[in-house]
Specification:
The protein is mainly β. It contains 1 helix and 6 strands.
Length: 99
């Protein structure tokens, strides 16, 4: 599971957050998956369950945070996080191995 948390950091008192992180996972130059707003992902229910299983803090349903839950074969990957509409700010990138 990959998460790009911007708005969710406000709960912890962080200011200057990235309001809408856009997360894209690549293998080489090929995009494998992308997400903006985790709750719009087709597997949002599984993302919530994976967060609970790994001990990750909960993301609010209406947040602009991003998350991907993917099964990947061994290989090299790059995770890129940018701001929607070229916005800038602070974002926490998390990577979890989900049991």
């Amino acid at each position: 599971m990959f998460r790009a948390v911007g708005p969710g950091l406000a709960t912890f008192g962080v200011t200057g957050i990235l309001p809408a992180p856009v997360m894209t996972l690549y293998t080489g130059s090929q995009s494998v998956a992308t997400n903006t707003r985790w709750q719009t992902a087709p597997n949002a229910v599984e993302i919530r369950r994976a967060a609970q299983r790994t001990g990750a803090f909960e993301l609010a349903d209406a947040s602009g945070d991003s998350a991907l839950l993917v099964t990947l074969p061994p290989g090299e990957y790059t995770l890129q996080v940018s701001g929607a509409n070229n916005a800038t700010g602070i974002v926490l990138v998390e990577i979890y191995e989900v049991p």
